[in-house]
Structure formats: structure tokens, C-alpha cells
Amino acid sequence: MTTPTRQTSAGAPGGGATPSPTGGLLLSRSLPRFFEPALLLVLAAVVGGALFLTGLFNVPLLAVVTLLAYMVTITIASAVVENGRKAKDRLVTAVVYACFALAMVPLVSLLWTVIVNGLQRLDGYFLTVSMNGVTPSMDAGGVYHAIIGTLMITGLAAVISIPIGLMTAIYLVEYGRGRLKQAITFFVDVMTGIPSIVAGLFVVALWMMVFGPGKTNGAAGAIALSVLMIPVVVRSCEEMLRLVPNELREASYALGVPKWLTILKVVLPTAIAGITTGIMLALARVIGETAPLILTAGSSAVAINWNLFNGQMMSLPVFIYSQVRMGNAINYERAWAAALTLIVIVMLLFFVARLVSRFFAPKLGR
Questions:
Q1: Each residue of 311-362: pLDDT tens digit?
Q2: CA distance 125 to 91
Q3: What residue spans carry the region label Disordered (predicted)?
Q4: 99 to each of 23, 89, 335, how far by Cα in Å?
């Protein structure tokens, strides 16, 4: 009996086998790299022309129809040229990019609208004068007093919230056990969902009990913001501390370092980048609050007030609200410029947070 031998092609270089037309070549076929962007451009042109001829052309409809046509076309083309698995992969990829674009549309639209309308009045004069002595219809005045109030109120809220929130998170991660930990976690979760106006009413009631009715000032506003900020700081810092590997703690304990010093020298520096980001998110959460500040810090201050504990204090969100409520063109311009100023302040805070994360995070060796 003879043993069957494999048939090889003598024409293959080096005596190797030639790939079968139904095997390796089919498995190696794929769409060109330029096919996807070219297909998207062609479909956009075709759909745009069709909508223009029918008189239905508008940008949102063009984007939706082009995207749907692209999903169908790329799936069919991939199934014909490549295989079913690759076609599903391309379809899911298109859906993911579409969801990302859909999520970016409101953000880009909001930023564009604020920038276009805010730049009409935003200048050095607007940023360096207050509304003291300016009537609503006058083409004068600025937002300097509101910037000072926002920075001072938010700064005091951060001074109150960050130590309380961070130490609470350390307790929950490093020391907490049993029912006390469960109770703290429960109340933190409940406080996270408290409406902002409820925090303002709580501080108003507290202020009336301690100082009597009618006592509105920046400190009351800062306490109201801290009620909203503390649970966000606790939750974000807790998650960052849980990400620190236990091996680092155990290595420190093995060297005889006490627990409190391990937390101070090992755990916190390791998680400093995430903790800083969480604190900035909490600040961004409260810096734009309006309702609690109207109730606690007042809404009629027009002059610069450097004393958090005496008199009403204006803030940027309340300034925007008060200007929009007046309803004429000049007030709308002031409101847009103040909104752009608030966005710039938030961006600067995140820039500072990135610098802190970069310079204070532990350096990783090679």
C-alpha cells in the first residue's frame, strides 16, 4: 500500500505551496484603507444633492440620512468582499462613532453659541468694572464684582468640602467597617441626588435659626454649595483610593510603617491625580449653581463685596440669571459674556488640576 502524498506546485518560489484560490486569498481580502472615508464623502454628496433637489436640505437631516446610508453600505460591502464577522465589526464601529458624534453635537453647539454671543461684549472693560451705579438700560457696567463673588464663595466651599470629603473617603476605604460604614455610604448616596434648591433652603433655615431672618451673605452661599460638593468629593475620592493596589499598602506595612503614615506617604500620592480630577469635577458641579445662591447670597448686589460674612454677594450664575430676567438686548449681551467668563474660569481650574496631577503624582521609574 502506498501512502498518499500532498500535491505541491512547482511554480511556487522556493518550492513552497501556492495559496489556494478558495483559501488564503479569500481570507486575506479586505477593503482598502481609503474606502471608508471615500464612501462617506460620496454618500454625503449624493444625499446632499438628493435633498437639495427635493427642497428638503438641512444639515441635521443630511447627517442622519448619510450616516444610515453609510452603515448599510459599509456592512454590505464588507460582507461581500471580506466576511460576516468583519462586516459586523464595521457596523458596530460605525454605530460607536455615530454615538460619539451625537454626544458631541450638544457640547460643540453650546460652546459655539456661548463664544459667538459672549465675544460681543467680553473685553477688558467688562472684566474690570462692576454694575455699581449702572441702570439696567445703560450700555455700561461689567462683571468684576460677580467674578470676585464666585471665586470667594466657591473657594470657601472648597475649603469646607475638600477636607471633609477626603477624610470621609479615607475612612470608608481604609478604616470603615460594619453598620457605620454602611450608614455613611447610604447618606452620601442620598446627598448626591439632593436638588440644589433644597440645599439652599436648608442653609436659609439654618441661618435663620442662628442669626435671624434676612441674613444673606457669601458665607451662607458657600455652606450651601459645600452641601452639594461634599458627596461628590467623597464618592470620587473613594473610587480613586480603591484603585490603589493593596500590594503597595502591604509592602509599606512589611517595612514597619504605621497605617496613618502609609496612607499619607503611599496611598494619597499614588491616587493624587484621580483625587484632583474628582475635586475639580465637584467644583465644576457647584460653580454654576444658581438657586441656592439666590436664596443664601442674594441677587441684588451690584458693588464689589470682599467680606463673605457681611452683606449680599453677587456670583456669575446669579448675575446671568438677573440679566436675562431684565429682558433687553444689552442685558442679554452681558449675560452671554458672563457665561463665557464662567466657562473660561472652569477651564482654568481644570488646567490647574492637570498641572497639580502632573507635578505631584509619583514618578514612575523605568
A1: 889 999 999 998 888 878 888 999 999 999 999 999 988 888 888 777 766 6
A2: 53
A3: 1-21
A4: 37, 15, 32
Report whether 265 contacts 255 (CB < 8 A): no
Residue 49, sorted as left (phi over 0), alpha (psi -120 to 50) or beta, turns out to be alpha
Alpha-carbon distance 308 to 222, whole Å?
9
Instruction: Give the 3-state secondary structure of residue 54.
Output: helix
Q: Provide the grid cell at 345.
A: 474660569
DSSP one-letter code for 264:
I
Looking at the chain, the domain(s) classified CATH 1.10.3720.10 span: 128-360
Greatest pairwise CA separation for the chain in angstroms: 113
Q: What is the DSSP letter of 29?
A: -
Query: Which pTM value belongs to this model?
Result: 0.78
Can you read off the three cell numbers belonging to residue 147? Answer: 467674578
Segment 190-235, tens digit of pLDDT? 888 888 888 888 888 888 778 777 778 888 899 999 999 999 999 9
Q: Which residues lie below 8 Å from residue 104, measured CB to CB, with a gap of 6+?
A: none
Q: Which superfamily does 128-360 belong to?
A: MetI-like (1.10.3720.10)
